[in-house]
Structure formats: C-alpha cells, structure tokens
Amino acid sequence: MEHSGRSPSGNSVLDRDEQWFEALFTRFHGPVRAYASRRAPDDADDIVADVFAVAWRKRDGVPDNALPWLYAVAAREMLHTFRAHDRRDRLSARLQVTASLVHPDPAEQIVGRLDAQAPVSRALALLSESDAEVLRLWAWEHLEPAEIALVLGISSVASRVRLHRARRRLESILLTAPRNQPHPSVSTLESPS
Amino acid sequence: MNQLRDRLADVNPVPEPPRYSREQTTATVSKILFEAAQADRALAEHHTDHELQSPIAAASRPGTPGWIRSRRRWVLSGAALVGAGALVVAPGMLGDEAAFATWSATPKAVPPAEATVAGEDCRVRNMDDPTGVGPGRKVVESADIVLVEGRGIWTYVVLGGAGGFEATCLLRDNGSGEEVTGGGYVGTLEAATLAPHTVLTHGTHAQSDDHSSYRDITGRVGSDVASVILNTRQQGLVTASVHGGYFAAWWPGPPIVGMEGPGPEPTVTLILKDGTTRADIPMAQVNPSHK
C-alpha cells in the first residue's frame, strides 16, 4: 500500500502501527542494508531483520530522525554477530579469500577488503578503528557530526572533535605516505589459488 | 574537506544501497511482525490464561451496539463450490468508499481478551441460520475460535469446527460494533492430507454493494508454513494471518458492477519456517475445487 505524504518516523507514537512499520522498513532498509553490507556482508540480511525487529519492539522509542538510531542498533547487532562467531576464525578465513575485496569485511578488517593500491584505502587502514569508523559514517553513510554522535552514543561535541581529528590524521597519512607502496599487512592478501 | 569526503566515498565498497524487491520487503516485514506477534501472544497467553477460561459474551458488554446489518452466506464445499464466487449485497451495506479507509495490507494482532470477545460475537451470529444450509447449533457451539485478526477498525474472525466447518465474521469498530457480513463453509478441507509446505483453501469470495466490495479467503496451512502473502489485483500484496493451522485475509476493492464478476484469484506466496519462499503459486494449485 502507498503511504503518501506520511513520514514513517514523523508520526506520533500512537500511530506507530504495522503501516508505520512497513513504511519505516520500505524507506530505510536500503541504507541499513548498505551499512551492514559495508561492515559484515555475510550477515547483512540477518542484521537488517534484527535491526527492524528491534525497531518494531521499541517502536515507541524510535526517534523522528530514525536512520542514525537504526545504524546504532545495527552497530550493536553486529557486535553480537561478531561475538557469536569466532572472530579470530573469521579474520583468518577472510584473509585467504580475495573475494573479500568484492564483499567487504568487518570494520576492523578494512585492510583486507580495500584495494591494496588505493592510497585512501591504505590510509584509512592505518587509522585506529575509532577514527576510521567516524570517517566511514561521515563519508559512506553521509552523516553529519550530530548524527554520528547518535550512532556512536557520544555527545555532539565529542563527535565533532573526533571527526576533526580523524580527518587531520587521514590527511596527514595521505600527505606523508609514499605513493604506490602497499601497506605491509596488505601484502599477505595473495589468493591461495 | 569535501574533497576528502569525496575521496573516502570513492573507496566505499557498497556505494549504492542494495534494496529489496517489493516481495522481499513484504516477506521480511511479515516475518518480523509474525515473529513479534507470536512472542506477544505467548506472553499474553501466559498472563491471561484465567481470562480465557471465561469468555465474555458479546451481549453482556456495556455499550455494544446491536447487530445492525448482516448477511451470511453458507457454502457447501466440494463440487458445489467452483472458483471464486461473488455475492451482491444490499446497497450501502458495506458503507461508502471511506468505510475501508483504515484497512491495512498487513494484519495486526488482536489482544487475547478482545479476540475472545470478537470470536464469541461471531459464534452468536452464526447460531441463527435461517437458510438451513449451516451445520447446526451444536457444531457452532463447539467450534473453536481459530483466528482473529485486525486491519484498521476491522476485526475478522474465523471459527473452525467439526466436519470441516468454517465460519467467518467481519466486524466493524474493532469487534465492538456491527458485523458487516460473514459466511461459512460446511465441507471438508482435508487438513490431514495437507503437505507441510503448502496450504489448502476454498478460494476467495467477494461481496459487493454499490460503493465498494471486499474479498476474503480462509484455509489451512501446512506445518512448515510461517507466512502467507496474497498478490491481489485490488490491493497488491496482502499479508494473511496465520494461526492455529489456519490462514485468513480480506481486502477491499471497488464495487463489482454488472456481470464483470469478482476478477481473477490472487496468487499465493508462502514463506516457510526455514526462511525459504514459494512465490506466486496459482490458486488452482491450492484450491481442491479447481481440480
């Protein structure tokens, strides 16, 4: 059914029925799935289902600006997913598969999934996970500092500062890193076949 | 700054959000709502067992409007039932076009206490059978309230009992008001022969007045079926309720005019409990009357 002129996340809490939920899902499942695919491609569909199941259960608490809230839930769901799997096994398995360059790995294994020759990829991989995630939320999810704060559960000021520092660090690496020299850890990503 | 953002965007491994198809969306939403309703129901049943032991008679509820209008159809299943039937009812019975404005393609769970009230309403209304085609009072009295679902202000009830008895009621105002119409079947859908991964149904029936129409469908579900979705001409994808081995759905449409008939039957998509989907099954494959 069409729900024209109705913002799924802008309704009053009283209107949060199945139609509201369907509209919320229709509007935001794409970005949430992309967010999950960028970080945990093997589990992306499960994460989408889990995130929206949480949204339905906690529908009274979903803010009007729903997307950062959904990303925050997704981040927690991914944490559960990674804990549920053997994280170390996942890392070692993925490092042996060059297909991982097509399907992105979890955030902390960014080295393994980005183009080894790309200076930005290499620079991003050299950052701390915390800095890299701020930059990914900023550039890949197109979030502004206040929204990044909602996802990471930090204050807007802290988010602004963290983003500023992460940008500076990335720029610094890009300026100083020699071109066309793969990061040492990337050299292990040869296909076994 | 924007240049840096653009450079980072260039290494985004999934630049375009991969979106689900309409069917995948419906299936996922239905699955989430289905599982949430199951969890809620389990919780509610745990807490309200004592309430369910003493169903509240509809007539005893204060402020219940009378049974203003109703039409009841009885159908003998089997050879007497071929394809989708249409019944034209009294002008204005279904109300104007706005009558179904609150209808939703996805059903909502009805709290157990309200479901019992609506179910008992439906039972009382099925007791009176001037046509003589119905199964008789004893069957109706002993029938189970097998499924109660909500769509907007509407509550739809399915009773199931001995001899393949099924009766339905469409109740307005969340079951506290009038019944628009209802119907029933006396016959057999051989649930015992139902394969786990499929459904059996008598097909849809349509009712219409000068302003609007609605179609409804009930049936049995196999033990592996988690969700049933109907692809209808009038409303697109409609998610059926599934409970107690039955499924049911209804949906509004424009009035059925003259000889045009109720239109084509919907196709049926099944989502099994293991997550697999059986998409767009023709009605002929799940309605024994078509064979």
Largest interface: A-B, 40 and 31 residues
Biggest sheet features of chain A: none
Topology as H/E string of chain B?
Answer: HHHEEEHHEEEEEEEEEEEE
How large is the count of helical segments of chain A? 9
Residue windows where pLDDT falls under 50 for at least 5 positions of chain A: 1-7, 83-106, 180-193
The radius of gyration of chain A is 18 Å
What amount of the residues of chain B lies in strands?
Answer: 25-35%
Query: Over the alpha carbons, how many angstroms does the gyration radius of chain B reach?
Result: 21 Å
* Mean of all residue-level pLDDT scores of chain B: 72
Strand order of the largest sheet of chain B: 1-7-6-5-4-3
Instruction: Give the topology string of chain A: H per helix, E per strand.
Output: HHHHHHHHH
State the oligomer: heterodimer
Structural class of chain A: mainly alpha
Largest sheet of chain B: 6 strands, mixed
What's the total number of strands of chain A? 0
Distance between the termini of chain A: 50 Å
Q: Quick one: how many beta strands of chain B?
A: 15
List low-pLDDT spans of chain B. 46-92
Share of helical residues of chain B: 10-25%
Secondary structure class of chain B reads: alpha+beta
Task: Walk me through this protein's architecture.
The complex is a heterodimer of chains A (193) and B (291). Chain A has 193 residues and is an all-alpha fold. Helices cover 60% and strands 0% of the residues of chain A. Chain A has 9 helices and no strands. Chain B has 291 residues and is an alpha+beta fold. Chain B is 21% helix and 33% strand. Chain B contains 5 helices and 15 strands. In chain B, strand 14 and strand 15 form a beta hairpin. The relative contact order of chain B is 0.16.
